[in-house]
Design goal:
The protein is built from 9 helices and 6 strands; from the N terminus they run H-E-H-E-E-H-E-H-E-H-E-H-H-H-H. The protein is α/β, with parallel strands linked by helices. It has a single domain, classed as Rossmann fold, CATH 3.40.50.10310. A 4-stranded parallel beta sheet has the order 2-1-5-6, sandwiched between helices. A two-stranded parallel ribbon has the order 3-4. Helix 3 links the parallel strand 3 and strand 4. Helix 2 crosses helix 7, helix 2 crosses helix 9 and helix 7 crosses helix 9. The longest helix is centred in the last third of the chain and has 19 residues.
């Protein structure tokens, strides 16, 4: 049985004199998430917990450094996250979010790592994150750095879904549903409550209707169904994602621990 790694080298643990040597050829892994309602059974931290756990494992497997996660997300929308009709969600406006991400990315670029891996866990972040990265890669920014960014669900193959979730509602509606509930049962079972809400008619993708009928689009903020979730399914999905990242990245640019670097 594969074991998750909990203790990995972190960028923030470096001293200032260590940074130049540690960055040569290094992989930095940055989880980007959010604080968003996930129904009555999951914590607000789901969109941060999942990419952070994956980022930690990826950093361990490629010999990289874990960056502190970005915990506040773009706006939650009704047809993909339940929206702001439910208590607890904290968000940043879209233009501010792009500016914030851009400034962070500029800072990472100045460090000069070999590769920056960005793992997103909040559905509405994706387009804004990609726009920020696309704006940063012009000119001298990331001139010698490979940038790889993705949302974790993008690495779930159709074969895996067919074998494990044959009646899949689409990722826009898989909010607080089977996959997120199962992953949290595996990663953080202590914060998963007993309820398993189910919504029989997930909202369609790419459609916004105003005014929003909260009861029509969700069951207590759940857009599809959490029924049948299990830690076993979460474990299979987590390692499927880890393997997907390894395939996406190919050979890591470094294999030694950057924490061994002398100033």
């Amino acid at each position: 049985m594969r074991q998750r790694t909990t203790n990995v080298p972190r960028y923030g643990d470096l001293t200032s004199p260590q940074v130049p040597g540690a960055m040569a050829g290094a992989t930095l892994v940055w989880p980007v998430g959010g604080l968003e309602q996930h129904g009555p059974h999951l914590p607000l931290s789901v969109d941060m917990d999942i990419p952070e756990a994956l980022a930690r494992q990826v950093a361990a497997e490629v010999g990289g450094l874990l960056l502190p996660g970005q915990p506040v997300s773009a706006r939650s929308l009704p047809q993909s996250g339940g929206g702001l009709h439910f208590p607890g969600t904290v968000h940043i406006g879209g233009s501010t979010f792009i500016d914030y991400l851009t400034d962070c990315l500029r800072g990472f670029s100045r460090l000069g790592p070999g590769r920056l891996v960005v793992i997103n866990g909040h559905y509405e972040n994706e387009g804004l994150l990609f726009e920020a990265i696309d704006g940063c890669t012009e000119g001298a920014l990331f001139a010698h750095t490979e940038v790889v960014a993705f949302s974790w669900w993008s690495l779930v193959t159709q074969d895996w879904l067919g074998a494990h979730i044959p009646r899949f509602p689409g990722w826009h509606a898989e909010h607080a549903g089977l996959t997120e509930t199962s992953l949290m049962m595996y990663l953080r079972p202590d914060v998963v409550r007993a309820e398993r809400p189910s919504h029989a008619e997930p909202p369609p993708a790419g459609v916004y209707r105003h005014p929003v009928d909260v009861d029509e689009i969700s069951d207590q903020g759940v857009l599809s169904s959490a029924v049948g979730a299990s830690a076993e399914l979460g474990e299979r999905l987590f390692w499927h994602l880890v393997d997907g990242v390894a395939e996406l990245l190919g050979k890591p640019p470094m294999h030694t621990s950057p924490m061994d670097t002398s100033p």
